[in-house]
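Submission sheet (multi-component)
Chains listed below:
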Amino acid sequence: MIALLERLKADVPFSFLDKSGLQSIEEAAQIAYYQKGTQLVAREKMFEVLYFIIKGVVEARQGDELIDLYHQDDTFGGIELIEKQPSAYDYLVTEELICYEIPQELFLKLCEKSRPFKEYFFGSVVERIEMVKERQESAKMAEIMVSRVERSLLHEALVVDADMPIIKALEKMESYGAVALLVQNKEGYGIVTDADLRTYILHKEEKGFQYICQIQSYPIISIEEGELLFNVLLLMTGNSIKHLPVTDSSGQAIGILTLIDLLSYFSNQSHLIGSQIENAQDLQSVIEAAGRIDVMIKALHHKGIKSRYIARLVSEIHKKMYDRLFEMIFPLEWREHATLLLLGSEGRGEQILRTDQDNAMVFAEGFAPEDKEIYLQHFTEALDAIGFPRCEGNVMVINPKWAKDTKAYKANIQRWVHSPDMEGLMDLAIFYDAYAVAGNKKLFLMLRNTLLDEVKKNHAFLPHFAKAVESFESPLGIFSRFVSEEGHKGEIDIKKGALFALVHGVRALALEHGITKTNTTERIKALNNVGYMDKEDAKNLIETLEVLMTFRLHARLEKLEQGSVPDNYIALESLSRLEKDTLKEALKMVETFKKRVAYHFHLSMVN
Amino acid sequence: MFSKWRNRWNAKRLKDEHFAFLFEEDTSGEVVVFDCETTGLNPKKDEIISIGAVKIKGNRILTDEALHLFVRQEKQIDQESIKIHHIRHCDLENAMPVKEAIEHFLHYIGSRPLAGYYLEFDVAMVNKYIKPMLGITLPNLQEEVSAIYYDKKIPRIPQGNIDLRFEAILNDLSLPKMQAHDALNDAIMTAMIYLKLKNIKKLH
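Outcome: structure written.
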């Protein structure tokens, strides 16, 4: 076996081939060396072989325009060989190339033998993306089987001395809200759970129980931190135990894992967290429950749930959380005379992991409680405690600009639409994405109707609004050089590079069509419904959004796990060939969409 | 002149005229890169375990015509070389007697020039068998890749020590490394070194 072929086998499309197919490649492929600057295939010329890059970079160019880039482990020439079409581009070696060349005849034979292999080369974006996701999902399914016990899953371990009187120990358990008691014996721990209390109540007279150690279960079954959750599940099921003490490597108890938490980790914690928030009696409980959302997201992502569904789930829980915070923090009369707005990604229901605090307050006209600053400050501090970073742009209720009455907002709307400046356009974008989450939501709905009416009256303003889709260059150009911004070598900013343009383009079109949905996916569907966009385009756009968001979530989770601050950068090195392909396809889709928006709003005529 | 004479002398001693092709003029335009895995480093004492060879033509390594032969062992392979080559006795089930392997190899190379890394050793190993078989030593032109590398490198580092270890050369030329250490993969890596060295004017 030629060792270099191992790499080729590892990924699609070659992984679709069976052993004999791979064997035939080994028997027919040659390794070729090309110096930088070589023209591999010229425009209008035929491909003679399928190229698989072992090392180096090849650019596909049309005149000066860079169409595509191929790197290590990339394959190209497939479609041209199958279709027997001349090349549409010039293929140029831009970094010394060592590649496999698979003869056309063999390649076509392989296509005949394996349908998925052939289809890969024809796959539309959506299909290719599906292939990546299927692969990711199966990988993630496997990953949940290898998840390990972490502290975030544990209840606090309440340890008492062996000779503590039973009643005293139970009082302590009650006051701490502990799920079980750990008893510190001379040798190891014992445990007291509800089942032991039953024994105590039934037999305390005849047996003369006095001390907690008399009713403990001892010795205990425990596990060390880092054990596979799957093994833990087997252990708990096998021994019919509901509370499992977890120790660190020195044998010191660090917490208790309950069967319910374990099962909900394996299924879905959203229900649990949701009810914890709804039943919370004080601010602290809300903050604690909200802290568990990250654990839930991680579990769901590992299970391969699509990120837009996770986002929706998270935004449902967040809505409950904001509702509860609103009730707890603000005086009763605010419920009638004020409404809390979520802005930015949270307003669009696209926030997955906590990003910034983006929120605003709308008061009924003339409603101006004297001490409102104090309450708004409280609210912001509660979000701080949950772990929402403050918004750098200061779009928060503690900024008077974003906490005022309807009259003031109406004046803003007039200015935004009729004499747009940079700041006004940005504020409008923020406001159009707003979602009223608590309080008297009618206050906001009225304002939004005003906004849509004003836009309808003044369509000339829309191109100015849409212009921002062109603010950032596509990172596809950066790909070739692997040099991104300073301090971000080998990374691309997926938000600036793609998500922003997609979200904003959709926003501009939605605004034009008077769509009241805030979620980008919903807006795209609505654009399809009003007839602006056909179903195929809408589907492609939604999938593109999904892919970009999945990449972002994945990168953010990884950064979170490494203990660094999640941002919007994606390390290209960490992506597989197919993932890179998919990302490239998605970025290309965004470019196409940008052009569509530019054409639609005649952006070339706007300064 | 001297080498021509020596070659003629070598040819005269050929015992089996079936192998006269070894002395014919080469018109293939190809070079054969080869590598032997052996039981040790002493050509007198040690035996060939396997031979890997590929042809190079122009800018291509003809992996489709690669040769990978395993030689049946009469003695036990010692533990050390098992560790290096990962070849065990059970891997040698498809192995052939050494005479047959050498004949295959000679037909494969023909009168093409040979190239290799520390080629002298591999040639000595082959000669050890063909001398008694055919009365000759390998007459093919021989190119040592580490020598080509040295010549391209020395103008850059006139007084310096040049690291001629296989890994170091691969690294310096930024060629992909392969995990497998068998005769064929070593020959392919050597062929990549050869191709690159032949294609570049100078090293940095």
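Remark: The helical segments of chain B are 2-12, 79-85, 98-109, 119-134, 145-153, 166-172, 183-199.
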